[in-house]
Task: structure prediction
Amino acid sequence: MAGARPLKIGITCYPSVGGSGIMASELGEELAARGHDVHFISYERPFRVPTDRPRLKFHPVVINDYGLFKYPDYTLPLSVKMAAVAREVGLDVLHVHYAVPHATAAILARDMLPVGQRPRVVTTLHGTDTTLLGRDVGYGPAIAHALAQSDAVTTVSHYLLDETRQVLGVTRPIDVIHNFFEPRPPKRSRAVMRRELGIGRGAMLLHVSNLRAPKRIDLLLETVARIRPQHAFKLVVLAGASWAPFEKEVRRLGLEERVIVRERVTDIEDYLQAADIGLFTSEMESFCVSILEAMNFGCPSVAPTVGGIPEVTVSGRTGMLVPFGDVEATARAVESLMENPARRRVLGAAAKIRARKLFSADTIVPRYEALYRRVVEDGISRDRAIEGNPIACASST
Ligand code: GMT
Result:
């Protein structure tokens, strides 16, 4: 931080298993380690946020399930909590991950506070907040408004930047700041993990996801079913949600001996270091943190050419990209890597170099810090202008 004063940063995200919540948690941890005070504001403590770190605090939002409401409201209590934390600790920045409803709540919180106490609002778009909800007539205009009113907006890929411009008609400046991953040392060895999973001499394919609809688990299983039986392999699924809805399909395809599922795993590095090939069949990914996680352990992935995935991994150099939905091509790509361990190692080594060079905490976190300092500086000059010119106050945020 070299001389610059530490910042007080509020972070709001979905605390459950999901890429945006994981990224927000990792960012908070990294910022605290760099000397900033970080305040998480959400309905639950994000599951990856450690409880024992100085400068990392969690502020729960309490929801009042008022009898009149058919649908309990989260946005208003969240905005009130954001404003209260901002007032109490003097937040410089409120960084919200996933626009709905966090960006709207942050704008409201900022507007509730007097000039001089207002945190600067940074909104990071992660994916379906643009690609799905942005297209929903019940959400789109509110998202566009919250983006226009934010002090800064970021997207996790160039793909998502283009989508945001196109879907929401947003013309304001947007910074692309890619996701990052900083692996922790595994607790168990590769050999122990492979023995425990019963991998033997075969290949370990790894799929990590929250199993939501865009992940297309149907295509994942169909791909595995098309891998020819002479190949010895297992597919290990690290599931961020219940696997029960997919068991029937596993049985229908006769994959009971091939598929191993672990739900709600926290020691993800243990599995990443044991894997040979990542396998993904999503119909949409603005980034795909799971591919990056595997790259960090020298594990190349086979994945579809959709969304921001080609920004993360380069086909033929750090992994293999195939047309979306082409289960035959996907299965053949997996087979080609299973049959050629030397090529797998070359791709994996290049994947690790790319991950460390472009998507490490040391590359990405300073970009957020610079953005925070920029909006804080801009905001101070704006507040001074408003204080010196009360008429401007009426039309200013
Ligand atoms: O946008 C979503 O669907 C949810 C979000 C999440 O919380 O898992 O996923 C998105 O954000 C991740 C982190 O930035 C990205 O790695 C995922 O690609 C992205 N998902 C989609 O775009 C479908």
